[in-house]
Specification:
The complex is a heterodimer of chains A (217) and B (120). Chain A is mainly alpha-helical. Chain A has eleven helices and two strands. Chain A has one domain. In chain A, a hairpin with a 2-residue loop joins strand 1 and strand 2. About 6% of the residues of chain A have low confidence. With 120 residues, chain B is an all-alpha fold. Chain B has one domain: Cytochrome Bc1 Complex, Chain D, domain 2, CATH 1.10.760. Chain B is 54% helix and 0% strand. In chain B, helix 2 crosses helix 5. Chain B is globular, with a radius of gyration of 18 Å. The chains are: A mainly alpha (217), B mainly alpha (120).
């Protein structure tokens, strides 16, 4: 009889465990189960050749907590709209807009996990969003970002399509990450089709450009 | 016996060949990854970035007569230092801090194939 009670108790406990909604699980566990087919989170960067970069199905997320804004990430995971006009690593196929949609609970848990992934390259509190004539000139002419990146011009996307869109960067990206990325792109992406602007733009230019991109609606 | 030798030699050759290509990226792979976004996979200057917002026409690399006017050294220079180094658009960025010397050399040869021309 006692054995029966113990068995029933264990059975009930097991039922509770299996019936527990997934949002109660840690974001790292949900991520491991659902996201690692396309994204990796254990940095530093693994890819060393073009072939290794092309083998990736989605962007690396090992510095996601330094790159993204928390509110944006939690909201995007529930309603993912394309950031890149084209499919990742493709110059010919459109972005199919097929990123999985997460429940509010799973999105919050994964956001907590990803926001904990920081890069020591990114120093906090250096860049404050700001427009300037100097930065507008860099963006448009000196290092024409719009050649590869879309942004909103009079409310409509304008610019190239090979890179991720910069529309909405003010809500999506951490301004300090934009600067760290321009200053030392190789630390984040050793193999990428974006040029290294650290040698073409001085620190002041890099900072004002980062501050400007961080204002993009 | 001779069949076995041929099979072994072929296998060895394939293995060595594969190992060699893993060390240095093929020029076409380098071109497709870095250059095709603006110059197009076919080299005609109509890559995916060339929308109505693109302020210049990327060079048509298959245009033999235009490309023949440029020396290999000119090509190396513009790949490494970008358009402004020859008073052309900054939309052609500098790739010198991204590509290795071997990759630049490979690109010059690949571009000569695309234009089917020699430099001046």
């Amino acid at each position: 009889m006692r054995l029966l009670a113990v068995t029933v108790s264990i059975g009930a406990a097991l039922l509770v465990m299996t019936a527990t909604p997934s949002y109660a699980a840690g974001g790292d566990a949900i991520f491991k189960k659902s996201c690692t087919g396309c994204h990796y989170t254990d940095g530093p960067a693994k890819e060393k050749t073009i072939a290794e970069q092309l083998a990736k199905k989605g962007p690396e997320l090992w510095y996601a907590g330094s790159k993204f804004q928390k509110d944006w990430l939690a909201s995007w995971l529930q309603n993912p709209k394309p950031i890149r006009p084209l499919k990742y690593n493709s110059l010919t196929e459109k972005n199919a807009a097929d990123h999985p949609k997460l429940s509010a609970g799973d999105a919050a848990a994964i956001t907590d996990f990803l926001m904990g992934l920081k890069s020591s390259e990114v120093k906090a509190g250096v860049i404050k969003p700001a427009e300037s004539a100097q930065a507008r000139n860099i963006y448009a002419k000196k290092a024409p970002c719009g050649g590869c990146h879309e942004s909103l011009v009079n409310g409509k996307p304008a610019g190239g399509k090979s890179g991720p869109s910069l529309a909405g960067a003010s809500k999506r990206l951490n301004p300090d990450w934009i600067y760290a990325y321009l200053a030392n792109i190789k630390a984040f992406k050793p193999v990428r089709d974006m040029p290294d602007f650290a040698s073409a733009l001085n620190k002041k230019d890099q900072m004002s450009l980062s501050a400007y991109v961080a204002t993009f609606e | 016996m001779s069949r076995f030798l041929i099979a072994t030699a072929t296998l060895l050759g394939l293995t060595l060949g594969a190992a060699g290509s893993a060390q240095a990226a093929e020029p076409k792979q380098v071109y497709d990854f870095y250059c095709a976004q603006c110059h197009g996979i076919d080299g005609k200057g109509k890559g995916i970035n060339v929308t109505k917002d693109f302020a210049t026409d990327p060079r048509n690399l298959t245009d033999s007569s235009e490309m023949a006017k440029r020396s290999d050294e000119d090509l190396r220079g513009v790949i490494k230092d970008g358009g402004p180094s020859i008073s052309k658009s900054a939309l052609m960025p500098h790739w010198g801090s991204t590509l290795t010397t071997d990759e630049v050399e490979g690109l010059v040869k690949y571009i000569r194939k695309l234009c089917d021309c020699k430099g001046k």
